[in-house]
């Protein structure tokens, strides 16, 4: 469904003709050889560069759906995702997300991978340039009995350059550049993942607190009912079985309350660890809005999948992995062709011996070394085939990431649509069951309803109220999944955000 366009390999035939042209240049005198070689090489490099197409992955030929199949929230209006978390009415959640990103080991490791990739890119780019080394030496001695003591000093510059005739060096530089882009995308993906994890934990905690509040009210009601029933049973107005049932119901309510509180405690521990916060101050901040779920503003998404998927860091990383694998394949093929290296040096030397000193400049051009691979037992061919296989695997991964991205967005949209449709009915149900419970409770105290009816009405009311809280949690979680599916706050102007930081 998502085919990837094949990367067109560099045509090495013009480069081969260039080598032949060098051999037929007029004037094979040694003093002109280096000059002609440099001129011909420059022209040859320009020719080879012009024949190499831009290696683009299958994004252009990997069509995605023209529109979402799932209903879009709020009509699919365009929205800005860069300030996603600021659109929630909960500054504490935003602060915890920012704190968690700063201390996350995943983000730190991703930043370290950027540094490694940057170093590799610099090294591969530098390999295309000539190398220049300076050396200084001094010696004093008497080499034999007939020679007076003498001193020799020298200073020189050594130049070396491997001509990248067949593009192996350029391919390596391209691969390193693509891997740098991929590592930068990985850094953003790590930030998005950490933000989504902290936000999800925070929402779970707030929903848990809301359920604790409901459990407290329910447990208190059960205890009061048990007390009233016990008094009525002691006076003979209620059978003892009802008193036992009421006590059992109160005990069960207390079990549920303790269990819910324990879950909240675990979520606080998790949030403390994720955001690297002191637990006592965090508890005080959480207590100011206990049980209140963060409500997002009317967040919106674009109606075109290709536009929103373009900002997903994992998609960008997969695309750059394809570019890197393509460049690796080019490099492996180019290494099967001859290599040409130039060398030269220039320096000054002074020799002083027996009161006589001699000084002057020394220089050399060459040697010009041509390394022609003749036999390696098939190593280079095998490396080229392996690189090609890695490229094909990278294109498959890229296409799979596209399909996965569309699935993630579609699932989040389906959940948002479902929660929106259920919200009104859930609220009506919770309100109706609460009124029914209040009526049956009044009838029970008047002696016209049984405890079984009261407990049944209580269970229905608690279940409906819990469903409302669960529905709110599910809807906010769907927004968070959509944030994750759309790539979070991936900057549209490139990767300068991380470079500035």
From TrEMBL:
The keyword Lipoprotein applies. Keywords: Lipoprotein, Membrane, Palmitate, Transmembrane, Transmembrane beta strand. It comes from the Bacteria. The keyword Calcium does not apply. It is found in: Cell outer membrane. Its main location: membrane. It is a lipid-anchor. Coiled coil: none annotated. InterPro entries: MdtP/NodT-like (IPR010131), OMP_efflux (IPR003423). It holds the Pfam family OEP. Belongs to the outer membrane factor (OMF) (TC 1.B.17) family. This is Efflux transporter outer membrane subunit.
